[in-house]
Amino acid sequence: MADLYPLARKLLFTLDAETAHHLTLSSMKMGHSLGLLKAMTGTCCQPSLLSEEKAKPVEVMGLTFPNRVGLAAGLDKKGEAIGAFGDLGFGHVEVGTVTPRPQPGNAKPRLFRLQEHDAIINRMGFNNPGVEEMLANIEHSRKGYPGILGINIGKNFDTPNEHFLSDYLACFEGVYDAADYITANLSSPNTKGLRDLQSAETCHELIRTLQNKREELMPHHKGKKVPIVIKIAPDLDEDAIRGLAEVFNETDVDGVITTNTTIERDAVKTHPRGEEAGGLSGAPLSEASTKVLALLRSEMKEDIPIIGSGGVMTAADAQAKMDAGASLVQVYTGLVYSGPQLVRDLAEL
User: For a Cys staple, 152 with which of 112, 183, 235, 249, CB 3.0–4.6 Å?
Assistant: First the structure.
């Protein structure tokens, strides 16, 4: 599989980025259904991509992850290829972002490769099928996947910020039974006003509201307590990060993901596409994301885990995030540029 990916990438990169994305997912789903992906990667039902003797499971948020590497939200927005990503060796897969109602997202084109920088800019805008259809997809695509499933939730673009809680609650309740953990996305730059919800006061209100809803739901789900995770942006200043750390400490949130994409453009300003609106991911984000992670780790209780995401392009990038205090790492852009070999490399850390 690793030997074939450079050729596949060459072909895919002749297509526009969003077309290539959909073609890749379709091919993976077909390969999974026929058993070809598993045969090509040699996973043999082991989501670690390693033999049982070499597997390195880790306990995080009360869940046993088969390895430390996961798929970041945004790649499988519909929850339709969970088993296929499991065949690649991901110990956890985070699907979404999903909103209560379906929405088409922003106008196309909205996804751009910056190959010279190993980067992507996207302004997808939470395009997704809504909670009901995603749950149907998950029921089908998760079969046989032994790893951990995270579901990333957000608000519809036309829901005013003053009513944001109703959208997060609807998603939270809707996906509760299907999820191993739930991530509240407050940090996408592609939904107008969403990042305003990262204020300490608003974030505190959201966490407490979701925790209270969880207490209501647990008796109806055989006592299942689903961890609540918050995903933050890399563009916060140090005071804002410290303010959020206080909130996370006070509320004992179950986990934090650092970080989402960035609106910073200095590293790619010379690229013809460098000024495209949207969130920048990939290599230019790596250092800034790790700095946010390190600061948050220094300000937050040790027992609140961090999932390191943003610019994980190599095993060295992942190791830097773990050295800074991450318990798990997630990839998206790194997978686009490096293919399945990156998953194997990270699973061995």
Answer: 183
pTM greater than the 0.90 cutoff: yes
Q: Provide the pLDDT for residue 48.
A: 46
pLDDT at 285 over 60: yes
Q: Which residues have a catalytic role annotated?
A: 188
Structural domains of the chain, ranges and CATH numbers in brackets: 5-347 (3.20.20.70)
User: Residue 38: what pLDDT?
Assistant: 81
